[in-house]
Task: inverse folding
């Protein structure tokens, strides 16, 4: 009998990225496995709603930082995995416990942590060592795009033959709002101008300084009335961005709401004139997919995994070319034919990516791991 343990240490209030990934995967798996056969390891501060997904196993002590979470994961989790008769352990977050004694699956989202210009030194050292161990230890490795698969196999040649590609899905909590909801949201905004939207944790790879420079071009040269909305929680290495914002001639047109709930995020997506995501490096790129599902025109980088995700349902640009970013933003704001095409193509493209399909593919990986263990 298949009994799966899923590490949900990233599912915490205000979590983005891997936290959202793990939450949505857990919810989708909950519909495919009996509740007693799906165990979710959670920190104490994980949202209470997660107690209704599978069998929740919370950390016995507070884990307020990465070191406390690592201590719990490395010392107590392997013991509980053994006691509960787990047949497959899955970490959706790069890392596996050293003391694990059952077949393991690890998900690798990207290898951005290898770039010293993009990540804090602490994350580089921590993830370099533990990801290398997880790649060696895992029975199966999952990459969230073919781009990530190629990066993993190039960095870790021993992973070849063990890497499966399983795409992410559109968050069901981000369903497009009704016209009445959208009108009510627009009426609550403190501004009336159309706006370009970015959603993501501020960090160097998100390329927000160049996005701001492109927006400055639009205001200065094209006299567009738009605003720029940057949604995201606390990030890292943001000094250059903060400096650029302070000295920007259009700083009064830049809106920074911080982190917002899913209930509000779906409204921001749907209300935007266009969604702009010129990231330098992404293993998948979930926010552009969410924006496409909302019927919002998307501008994204023509690099890393974006061609796989966005395809021809968005405008792809060179992320280091400020002029190209500005021209794409201008086209989406002024070309009604392009805007209409993208608003129709985005939802069609997004329907290819569902968490139900993701969970079914993972279930097949779990079963293959368990079967090889029994052989």
Result:
């Amino acid at each position: 009998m298949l009994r799966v343990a899923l590490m949900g240490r990233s599912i915490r209030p205000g979590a983005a990225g891997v936290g959202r990934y793990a939450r949505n995967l857990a919810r989708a798996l909950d519909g495919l496995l009996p509740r007693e056969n799906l165990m979710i390891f959670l920190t104490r501060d994980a949202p209470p709603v997660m107690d209704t997904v599978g069998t929740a196993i919370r950390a016995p002590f507070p884990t307020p930082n990465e070191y406390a979470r690592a201590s719990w994961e490395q010392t107590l989790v392997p013991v509980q995995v053994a006691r509960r008769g787990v047949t497959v352990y899955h970490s959706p977050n790069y890392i596996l416990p050293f003391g694990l004694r059952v077949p393991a699956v690890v998900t690798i989202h990207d290898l951005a942590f290898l770039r010293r210009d993009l990540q804090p030194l602490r994350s580089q050292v921590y993830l370099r060592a533990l990801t290398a161990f997880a790649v060696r230890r895992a029975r199966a490795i999952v990459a969230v795009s073919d781009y990530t698969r190629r990066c993993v196999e190039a960095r870790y040649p021993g992973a070849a033959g063990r890497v499966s590609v399983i795409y992410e899905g559109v968050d069901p909590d981000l369903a497009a709002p009704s016209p009445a909801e959208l009108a009510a949201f627009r009426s609550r905004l403190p501004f009336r101008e159309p706006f370009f939207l970015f959603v993501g944790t501020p960090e160097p790879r998100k390329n927000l300084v160049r996005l701001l420079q492109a927006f400055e071009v639009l205001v200065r040269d094209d006299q567009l009335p738009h605003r720029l909305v940057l949604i995201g929680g606390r990030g890292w290495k943001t000094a250059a961005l903060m400096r650029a914002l302070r000295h920007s001639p259009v700083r009064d047109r830049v809106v920074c709401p911080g982190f917002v709930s899913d209930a509000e995020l779906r409204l921001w997506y749907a209300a935007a004139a266009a969604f702009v995501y010129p990231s330098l490096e992404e293993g998948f790129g979930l926010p552009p997919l969410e924006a496409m599902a909302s019927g919002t025109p998307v501008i994204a980088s023509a690099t890393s995994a974006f061609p796989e995700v966005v395809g021809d349902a968005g405008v792809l640009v060179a992320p280091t070319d400020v002029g190209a970013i500005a021209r794409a933003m201008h086209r989406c704001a002024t070309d009604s034919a392009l805007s209409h095409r993208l608003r129709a193509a985005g939802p069609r493209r997004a329907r290819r990516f569902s968490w139900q399909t993701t969970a079914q593919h993972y279930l097949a990986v779990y079963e293959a791991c368990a079967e090889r263990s029994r052989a």
Summary: The chain is about 45% helix and 15% strand. The first strand starts at residue 4 and ends at 7. The mean pLDDT is 95. The first helix runs from residue 18 to 30.
